[in-house]
Amino acid sequence: DAGVTQSPTHLIKTRGQHVTLRCSPISGHKSVSWYQQVLGQGPQFIFQYYEKEERGRGNFPDRFSARQFPNYSSELNVNALLLGDSALYLCASSLFLQGNQPQHFGDGTRLSIL
Amino acid sequence: AQSVTQLDSQVPVFEEAPVELRCNYSSSVSVYLFWYVQYPNQGLQLLLKYLSGSTLVESINGFEAEFNKSQTSFHLRKPSVHISDTAEYFCAVSDKVKAAGNKLTFGGGTRVLVKP
Description:
heterodimer; A: mainly beta; 7-stranded mixed sheet; 4-stranded antiparallel sheet; B: mainly beta; 0% helix
């Protein structure tokens, strides 16, 4: 079975632009979460979606938004890009939302802002 | 609010030597505990988890971790490392509170460099 897939793998943007990152969860998984991993740091939680509803949001500005589609895939959108948005963006999926459900990660999208 | 502290940012170790990666957490509620491993240019892979029961948990590739509630720690150990264990290791927690979902709070990571 395919794991979590993310696209694109790499992306270069300039300040002020907008970006959309995409994620397909493991088949059957209903929950998708997004994390930002700045170089040299641990991942930071951005959003969690379950059954197309936002179920959690981390401490990120309103420039960050996301949604989940009926097929459980998800998009992360970032507007008005800043240099500090340069990071690896990780998507993770799980069957359900309970805390004992481990999350399965994709390989990420590496976003570079020039 | 939760926080996870990994006390060592880097751990150099010789091949076949033991290694211990330290992890302490702080939380106002009970938590589940996880260790993830990240190889270069890849996402995170689940290494092992503590949900309940025996406080010592093991992975299929020789790692083990012990949950110590009184010290709020979840240290990771391996008695004999291989070159292929070179990677970054992340300790993480999630809430046992149902409404919190399963979002993870991560530590800053420990980079393990295994030398021949």
